[in-house]
Specification:
The complex is a heterodimer of chains A (about 400) and B (about 325).
Chain A (H helix, E strand, L loop, with lengths): L1 E4 L1 H11 L4 E4 L6 H12 L6 E4 L3 H13 L5 E4 L1 H6 L1 H7 L7 E6 L13 H4 L7 E4 L3 H16 L7 E6 L8 E4 L3 H7 L16 E2 L5 H33 L7 E4 L6 E5 L3 H14 L4 E6 L1 E3 L3 H7 L5 E6 L9 H9 L7 E5 L9 H15 L7 E3 L8
Parallel strand pairs in A: 2-3, 4-5, 5-7, 6-7, 11-12, 11-14, 14-15, 15-16
Antiparallel strand pairs in A: 1-8, 6-13, 10-12
Helix pairs in contact in A: 1-2, 1-7, 3-5
Chain B lengths: L23 H13 L3 E4 L4 H7 L10 E2 L6 H15 L4 E7 L1 H5 L2 H9 L5 E6 L39 H6 L5 E6 L3 H13 L4 E6 L3 H4 L6 H11 L4 E5 L2 E6 L7 H5 L10 H19 L16 H12 L2
Parallel strand pairs in B: 1-2, 1-3, 3-4, 4-6, 5-6
Antiparallel strand pairs in B: 5-7, 7-8
Helix pairs in contact in B: 1-7, 3-5
Classes of the chains: A alpha/beta (about 400), B alpha/beta (about 325).
Chain lengths: ~400, ~325
């Protein structure tokens, strides 16, 4: 059934279709619509879940960890300052292998305060042990909530997953979304049946004090689960595509890359605009292509290497700055492509929610093409930004 | 009602943990869990109890145990309870948090769970300072006490604030049950734990738990110190059930606070003036708890508390 709904509504419906059992919640713009919709579902009897109105995001993730350790399927959502406030608990959830799914409405993390889209909230959580993915539209937002639970609860993974959707651009914008039938989702996502939980019949201690003689093995296991997650993500993507008819490509998605000379890596909604730019440039005979980075954690190094093996220059879009030069995506990509000789340049745009227009993306391609021809181009460009660097 | 004889010998918090000899926290946990029984799930925030009871690969708990962080006992309990309720499992969800984890860093989380009246049992093990990190002042530290962050210096000696009135804060949430406990009064202790176990909604047990190194006291005197605390009025035993407050143990004759203080190195530096100040605070508390309607203020050690005593203290703390 198709419905015209916001991204937040799509996420909430996704959670409902997953029959989530416990939802601790706290409001924050632009995520709030998600928990409001879930509160409606629970109040109307459309979702049989415990909806907990917590007193902060730190408590949201604490309750989520407690409920997950007690064996429930747990969903919540947050954004920006809220994600920062629960930062400590992100680190508690992942190594304890609690497969919580939490949507993050991407928003600038102040100061200065703002409420619009930027990735500096979730990028700060990139080493917390959560899987992270970025969606392009409302359909993908709904579909990825469903896939996130499959990935998180897979015994080869057992890690929390954070689907991120662009604040306002998706959260508060309506688009037609094909809503899967409950039976279809039920056959795709079975009930959560963990092996070790807090159960008086089989007492276990979860979160014990861990001396140095043991903790490295635990970290290594968690790192191993991240590696396993790559194959699980690919498998679940294929299975989802077969069942629901929507193939998102797995860890990355590519567009016009087969014969491309120059490519741009994007995340989130900027991908849609970039695809149009690729079409326009292609009509002019320019061999450009696009890589949509879907998962930032685990980072798809091998996929990227393969996708760019034949091109002459690569541009990387970043929607946040890592203050040692360039954005976090840029640095990850450079690291993944170490040893390859082509120029890789960084395009910072859309920070704090500033619009990213077709003209800016044209410019990104133009600069990247120049770099590919050996012309001197800055490694890092701030697009549509007033003033000088310093 | 369960009696001491009927209490299970099946230790659910076993021997072999690494708490200090005489630890009030370990004694309180062990006895509380004996009353609570097997169908209990425990959350412990960052504290000595995590270190001495769960250092991997050893563990003293025979009931399910969970730990994540310091400031989130209330919230973790709420989440656990929600999951058990959803799954239709009948378990007592219990948190054992310290005074730092309750009076200070965990106050918000505790308040949230209390305000929602979530069906959990919150136990505060109050040893009156951050003991796990090596004896730093908390909101539960009494007036005059030495801690490493309220040292005995040439200008300032010990903690200058009086112990925070946590009981009133918790009770203001209008929860079904709040009670204070002491292992020095085991019958009262067991009765309150059992009562809390059998009630529904947010229940709070506030346990007075001496810390041997933190209080600089004789490890053989844990029980005696708690008894002396009650006899002097430094710790009062009462319960608030659905808004009705009831004193559960009234000492016959008020003993001087000085007797209590001198048992512990953390108070031994206190000047006569400071002891008098503390005694006045205790008298005020004593009158508040024990004075019968119409009776005059009773304090057998010192004259009745004068109102300006508090004002003077206030002026000293906040300036003229």
């Amino acid at each position: 059934m198709k419905k015209v709904i916001t991204g937040d509504h799509a996420v909430a419906i996704g959670a409902k279709l997953c029959r989530v059992e416990v939802v601790p919640a706290f409001p924050i713009t632009p995520q709030t619509l998600i928990i409001e919709h879930i509160a409606d579902f629970v109040s109307d009897g459309d979702l049989d879940a415990k909806f907990l109105t917590m007193e902060s995001e730190h408590s949201v993730m604490s309750a989520a960890a407690g409920a997950s350790a007690a064996g429930a399927r747990v969903f919540t959502a947050t954004s920006s300052q809220g994600l920062a406030f629960m930062h400590e608990m992100l680190y508690a959830t992942a190594p304890l292998r609690l497969p919580v799914v939490m949507a993050n409405a991407s928003r600038t993390l102040g100061g200065p305060p703002g409420i619009w889209c930027e990735y500096n909230d979730s990028m700060g959580a990139r080493d917390s042990g959560w899987l992270q993915l970025y969606v392009e539209d409302n359909q993908e937002a709904l579909d990825m909530v469903i896939q996130s639970f499959r990935i998180a609860e897979d015994k080869r993974v057992l890690l929390p997953v954070m689907p991120c959707l662009d604040g306002f651009v998706l959260t508060h914008t309506v688009e037609p979304v094909d809503i899967p039938e409950q039976e279809e989702v039920d056959s795709f996502l079975l009930p959560y049946e963990p092996d070790i939980i807090l159960d008086p019949k089989r007492p276990a201690m979860i979160g014990t004090f861990m001396p140095s003689e043991y903790i490295m093995e635990l970290r290594r296991q968690t790192a191993g689960a991240f590696e396993s997650a790559k194959e699980v993500i690919r498998q679940i993507n294929s299975e989802f595509a077969q069942k629901f008819g929507r193939d998102y490509g797995g860890l990355i998605d590519t567009y016009m890359m087969e014969d491309a000379h120059t490519a741009l890596i994007t995340m989130g909604t900027v991908t849609s605009t970039s695809r149009e730019v690729v079409d326009e440039l292609r009509r002019k005979g320019e061999k450009v292509g696009l890589i949509k980075l879907r998962f930032f954690r685990p980072f798809p190094s091998n996929e990227l290497k393969k996708a760019v093996s034949h091109i002459s220059a690569l541009g990387v879009f970043d929607r946040s700055i890592s203050y040692h030069g360039g954005g976090p995506v840029y640095n990850e990509v450079r690291s993944a492509l170490y040893g390859m000789t082509m120029p890789v340049i960084n395009h910072l745009a859309g920070i704090g929610g500033r619009d990213v227009t077709k003209e800016q993306i044209m410019k990104m391609f133009e600069l990247t093409q120049k770099a590919g021809k050996g012309e001197k181009v800055n490694d890092i460009s701030w697009h549509n930004t007033r003033g000088e660097t310093n | 009602m369960i009696t001491i004889k009927e209490l299970s010998d099946d230790n659910l918090f076993t021997a072999g943990h690494t708490a200090c000899p005489g630890c009030g926290v370990a004694m309180s946990i062990r006895n509380a869990i004996r009353v609570l029984g097997k169908d209990t799930v425990v959350y412990v925030p960052a504290s000595c109890a995590v270190v001495f009871g769960t250092t991997f690969p050893y563990g003293a708990w025979k009931v399910p145990f969970f730990h994540t962080a310091f400031e989130n006992t209330g919230a973790c309990l709420s989440g656990m309870q929600a999951a058990f309720e959803k799954k239709g499992k009948k378990v007592t969800v219990v948190g054992f948090a310290g005074d730092g984890g309750t009076y200070d860093i965990g106050l918000q989380s505790m308040s949230g769970a209390a305000e929602r009246n979530d069906d959990v049992l919150y136990i505060c093990l109050d040893n009156e300072a951050y003991m796990n990190t090596g004896i730093q002042r908390s909101g539960g530290t009494p007036f005059g006490a030495w801690t490493t962050t309220t040292p005995v210096g040439n200008v300032v000696q010990g903690n200058r604030r009086f112990k925070k009135n946590l009981g009133d804060i918790v009770a203001a949430h209008e929860i079904p049950y709040y009670a204070t406990l002491s292992i020095g009064q085991p019958l009262d202790f067991i009765r309150k734990v059992e009562k809390a176990k059998n009630m529904r909604g947010f229940r709070f047990l506030h346990m007075f738990t001496p810390c041997i190194p933190g209080w600089k006291m004789d490890p053989a005197k844990t029980v005696e110190v708690t008894k002396r605390a009650v006899q002097s009025g430094m710790w009062t035993l009462y319960e608030i059930e659905n808004g009705d407050k009831r004193i559960t143990y009234k000492p016959g004759k008020m003993k001087s606070v000085k007797d209590y203080l001198m048992m512990q190195g953390r108070f031994r530096h206190m000047s006569e003036e400071d002891i008098k100040k503390l005694q006045m605070w205790v008298c005020k508390k004593w009158n508040l708890h024990y004075k019968e309607k119409g009776a005059p203020d009773v304090c057998e050690i010192l004259p009745p508390v004068e109102h300006h005593a508090v004002t003077e203290e206030h002026r000293e703390m906040h300036g003229p």
